[in-house]
Amino acid sequence: MIFARDLVKRFGDFTAVDGIDLEVAPGEAFGFLGPNGAGKSSTMRMIGCVSVPTSGELRILGMDPVRDGTAIRARLGVCPQLDNLDPDLTVRENLTTYARYFGLSRSESHRRADELLEFVRLSDRAKGKVEPLSGGMKRRLTIARALVNEPDLVLLDEPTTGLDPQARHLLWERLFRLKQRGTTLVLTTHYMDEAEQLCDRLVVMDGGKIIAEGSPRSLIETYSTAEVVELRFPDGLDFNADYAAKLAGVGERIDPLPDRVLVYADDGDAALAEVHRRGLTPSTVLVRRSTLEDVFLQLTGRTLVD
Asked: What residue stretches are annotated with the ABC transporter domain (predicted)?
């Protein structure tokens, strides 16, 4: 579905995408992770045929996005980072009007609109205006609009940013059902749990480069330990001065954060027992499994959202 080799995008002297290689297979849910400015959105814009690559090779659906941009866009569904629904139209009209841009007949446009509103659980809002909808409803409507042309490839730029947990989980359910139907999904996200839930495979980008690639589980197994112990110590104590020497050798590695200390170990309970044996008494303790955020901390040394 997507093939890129040594893909580069520059804006003047600034290199946003710096020679990346990637392939996305049919029916795959593929994710881009990384902080703001990592090159995710610039890559997505090239895949969406709205930004011309500076150099390198890029094929979308087997076609050249520079030469065949119109043909490719006709087979794409795009959910932008910010909702751009038409507030003057009803919920249903936002879909039927958009469908007409793809040359669909009036009757087919209405059929697809009704089907998609049912899919995203908005049938009861079909005749209402967009403005009163909640953020989660607007996001679901934007995704429904991206599907109106029955696309072969759907691009989702941070699809759940700003939504409450309930709305995010409902949206994940809808996207998972799309994946079950065989639709190819490509998404950017800041949310690690979202990437683990939705992505078959993903890349981590930083500074315009791909610094890691694989399934969520394989990345965790490669770059982290099985478990992580989160330790919070009493206020007013400097971790570096008071605890670094005492925690040395506990687990595989230690990451001091501003509000807590992370101890990476294959056996979290054993690591915690060693902490207590050394006479340390944290105020709170959490033993959990490793996540993609731990992978990112290991690879970049900072959190995902800059």
From this structure: 2-232
Angle, helix 216-223 to helix 292-300, in steps of 10 degrees: 50
Task: Flag whether pLDDT at 180 surpasses 60.
Answer: yes
Alpha-carbon span 186 to 169, nearest angstrom: 18
Does 233 share its domain with 184? no
2-11/55-60 β-pairing: antiparallel
- Here the tokens at position 91 are 């919920």
Domain final residue, candidates 220, 237, 254: 220
Kindly give, in sequence order, each residue whose CB lies less than 8 Å from that of residue 297, ignoring residues fewer than 6 positions away.
255, 262, 303
Residue 236: its H or E element: none
Tens-digit pLDDT profile for residues 22-58 = 999 999 999 998 888 889 989 999 999 999 999 999 9
Residues 172 and 120 grouped into a single domain: yes
**Are residues 195 and 114 part of one domain?**
yes
Residue 103 belongs to what domain range?
2-220
Phi, psi angles (nearest 5°) of residue 130: -75, -40
pTM of the full structure: 0.85
Q: Are strands 76-79 and 153-157 parallel, antiparallel or unpaired?
A: parallel
Locate 234 and state its tokens.
Answer: 């009493």
Number of structural domains found in the chain:
2
